[in-house]
Amino acid sequence: MLEEPSLVLLETATLNALQAIVGENRVLTDDDSLRHYGRDWTRFYQPAPSAIVLPGSVDEVQAIVRLAADQKLALVPSGGRTGLSAGSVACNGEIVLALDRMNSISDFNPMDRTVRCGAGVITEQLQQFAANQGLYYPVDFASAGSSQIGGNISTNAGGIKVIRHGMTRDWVAGLKLVTGTGELLDLNQGLIKNNAGYDLRQLAIGAEGTLGIVVEATMQLDRAPRDLAVMVLGVSDMSAIMEVLTAFQAAIELSAFEFFSELALQKVVEHQGLQRPFETPCEYYALLEFEQADESVLDQAMVLFEQCVERGWVLDGTVSQSETQAKNLWRLREDISETITPWTPYKNDISTVISKVPAFLAEVDAAVKKSYPDFEIVWFGHIGDGNVHLNILKPDALSVDEFRAQCGEVSQWVFEIVQRYGGSVSAEHGVGLLKKDYLHYSRSPLEIEIMKQIKKVFDPQGIMNPGKIFDL
């Protein structure tokens, strides 16, 4: 197991200055707080921040950054701490800016379908606000109940609806960013069309806090979906899944197309008290979601299902008959991450173009099994957008350090395959600490150098989430 965090002492004058900005009770240095705020969902790094600061306004964030820039103190922004690449882990004495208090929702505009959110707004909070207005915020994933909008923007979070609704960046109409000098940028201001020079808003999205701190965002909302139906189909192999995707997409507008392996299903059923969707065991399962604007849509879906069975692509299947059944079918996919957490999974979040996924996944699977046949491998992901999640479960006999070392070798082979397929080493989780040694498999030396130069413009002192994505 990881060691307990140790206190990295700040100068008393610095602590006093931070307390003067946010209040005495909002600068935390106790071990429990350091442990809680200093890490995310990864468990491969020891949290060791020097202090936790909880600002409550944009002005307070600016004041903290100016203080840090003046004293050259490293800052790590922290949202819901649900990241999977150690992008918000503070392990080198940094000051953590936890944005939990900046959680207000305001300025809803029904005509523009926009709303202003503080960085600390929980994703589910925004989803519920939209629903209360008869609208919809479509970016959704398993951690929606704890992830925060600022963190979603900083990692360009994707999730389960990307095939239809895109990534977080597609729903950010404007944002406010505090740069590494403490200046405030108000970017795009909610405009739909704005071609006046570079879009710095898009640079900040997905930058993992290395260019500045997202403090506020104007988020776009959508119309509410109508009568969603969910199908789970058992297929013989990955190629069959892609045939099913092609067949359904040609006739029905899908809002989701997910997949998971038999082992993933076994783990969820065993540990979450859920029922198998049907008795037939299959190598992989596809989960489809679509709107039923009228009865003809479900009729068409059933015709497609029968055609897929006749062609040997689908072995069995089921479709939701109620909202409760739809939610339970979704849990078979969404509960996977939570279910496998006790195994300290080593996660690879990889992607390629959709048409190459079957061959891509087969090569990766074979490479891992050949060298580590005793490792359990759980596959799931957003197959409709080419993103697959490789989860290697830690055997009980291995320590965390031994397991991580062996998985590091696995990653080397996996990312060589990713590079050969022109894919990404991080499809949606970000780079953080976990993936930065492998960034060159997805970005050229020139691209990485340009990124470093951009960071120096936004953050000349190098205080914003240093060591994440790349080293300067």
TrEMBL record:
<protein>
    <submittedName>
        <fullName>FAD-binding oxidoreductase</fullName>
    </submittedName>
</protein>
<comment type="similarity">
    <text>Belongs to the FAD-binding oxidoreductase/transferase type 4 family.</text>
</comment>
<dbReference type="InterPro" id="IPR016167">
    <property type="entry name" value="FAD-bd_PCMH_sub1"/>
</dbReference>
<dbReference type="InterPro" id="IPR016164">
    <property type="entry name" value="FAD-linked_Oxase-like_C"/>
</dbReference>
<dbReference type="InterPro" id="IPR051264">
    <property type="entry name" value="FAD-oxidored/transferase_4"/>
</dbReference>
<dbReference type="InterPro" id="IPR016166">
    <property type="entry name" value="FAD-bd_PCMH"/>
</dbReference>
<dbReference type="InterPro" id="IPR016169">
    <property type="entry name" value="FAD-bd_PCMH_sub2"/>
</dbReference>
<keyword id="KW-0274">FAD</keyword>
<dbReference type="InterPro" id="IPR004113">
    <property type="entry name" value="FAD-bd_oxidored_4_C"/>
</dbReference>
<feature type="domain" description="FAD-binding PCMH-type">
    <location>
        <begin position="45"/>
        <end position="224"/>
    </location>
</feature>
<dbReference type="InterPro" id="IPR006094">
    <property type="entry name" value="Oxid_FAD_bind_N"/>
</dbReference>
<keyword id="KW-0560">Oxidoreductase</keyword>
<dbReference type="InterPro" id="IPR036318">
    <property type="entry name" value="FAD-bd_PCMH-like_sf"/>
</dbReference>
<keyword id="KW-0285">Flavoprotein</keyword>
<dbReference type="Pfam" id="PF02913">
    <property type="entry name" value="FAD-oxidase_C"/>
</dbReference>
<dbReference type="Pfam" id="PF01565">
    <property type="entry name" value="FAD_binding_4"/>
</dbReference>
<dbReference type="InterPro" id="IPR016171">
    <property type="entry name" value="Vanillyl_alc_oxidase_C-sub2"/>
</dbReference>
